[in-house]
Specification:
Blueprint lengths: L1 H13 L3 E5 L18 H4 L2 H4 L2 H6 L2 H13 L6 H11 L5 E4 L5 H5 L4 E3 L2 E8 L5 E3 L18 E5 L8 H13 L2 E5 L11 H7 L3 E6 L12 E4 L2 H16 L4
Parallel strand pairs: 1-2, 1-7, 2-3, 7-8, 8-9
Antiparallel strand pairs: 4-5, 4-6
The chain binds nicotinamide-adenine-dinucleotide.
């Protein structure tokens, strides 16, 4: 394992442009369950039902009920994995993060270029006039919440059955083509089109490195290495190794 971390740190030093692709596992150590966690939040609120766009149009209070419960039950802060990715950016190694997560934790940790592939649950928008609201400022006593213009508010996240926002898709695709190394962290790589980004990176000649406690469909085919383990342990380990190799102590 130590050898592998050193190898990956050396690859990072060689690469001229680095992109990270993150998924739900990135935030698992912040207390946000992944879809695959047993006995968790998503067993009570099946995302296929509560986070499907058809449910939103037929019964908008349902997704809002889930969000209200989520806000009450899950108080998440960035974990050492998020902090390590923010540090990688500050150190000048990481260009951008493409995230499938909607929890805003990369932004909170300090990454400044986060491509929100599936939107962001910390914002909502009015489906009638297009005005944006910060989630914390919305009154959730009566659901669904409404805009001043009386239009229904929708969380600004991509629901199942909705397309990826055009700008996020274009930027993610460009970043995947341009990067020389892609760090793929905490994603099962089964949700498309996000899962195609490492394939694009590979096709354009980048090294692909996974960090995940379990192998994924990319392992052994697309990825050059997988470091088996948790994001909150492996990523700080990589940052420390980079500091050792470059003699940088901060
Ligand atoms: P997923 O639930 O399909 O897979 C999670 C992956 O994370 C698995 O491969 C698992 O082995 C790995 N994992 C678990 N704990 C980890 C840890 N500590 N460190 C590193 N990896 C860990 O998630 P997905 O691939 O992101 O796809 C599911 C969809 O659901 C995505 O759209 C995702 O954005 C969304 N989702 C988002 C959140 C969030 O915003 N935090 C939470 C749940 C689901």
């Amino acid at each position: 394992m130590e050898n592998l971390i050193t190898k990956v740190a050396q690859e990072i030093l060689k690469a001229k442009r680095i992109t990270a692709l993150t998924g739900a596992g990135m935030s698992a150590e912040s207390g946000i369950p992944t879809f695959r966690d047993k006995g968790g939040f998503w067993e009570k609120y099946d995302p296929n039902e509560y986070a499907h766009i058809n449910t939103f149009f037929t019964n908008p209070e349902k997704p809002w009920q889930m969000l209200k419960a989520f806000d009450k039950e899950v108080k998440a802060e960035p974990n050492p994995g998020h902090i390590a990715l923010a540090e990688l950016e500050k150190m000048g190694y990481l260009n951008e993060v493409i995230t499938q997560n909607v929890d805003n934790l990369h932004q909170q940790a300090g990454n400044t270029d986060v491509i929100e592939f599936h939107g962001n649950f910390r914002r909502a928008l009015c489906l009638t006039c297009g005005r944006y609201y910060e989630m914390g400022k919305i009154n959730l006593d009566v659901l669904p919440p409404r805009c001043e213009c009386k239009g229904v508010l929708k969380p600004d996240a991509v629901f199942f059955g909705e397309p990826i926002p055009e700008d996020a898709f274009r930027r993610a695709h460009e970043a995947s083509q341009k990067c020389k190394l892609m760090l793929v962290v905490g994603t099962s790589a089964v949700v498309y089109p996000a899962a195609s980004m490492p394939q694009v990176a590979k096709q354009y000649g980048a090294k692909v490195i996974e960090v995940n406690p379990e192998p994924t469909p990319l392992t052994g085919y697309i990825s050059d290495y997988i470091i088996i383990g948790k994001a909150g342990e492996i990523l700080p380990g990589i940052v420390n190794e980079l500091k050792k190799l470059t003699g940088c102590s901060t």
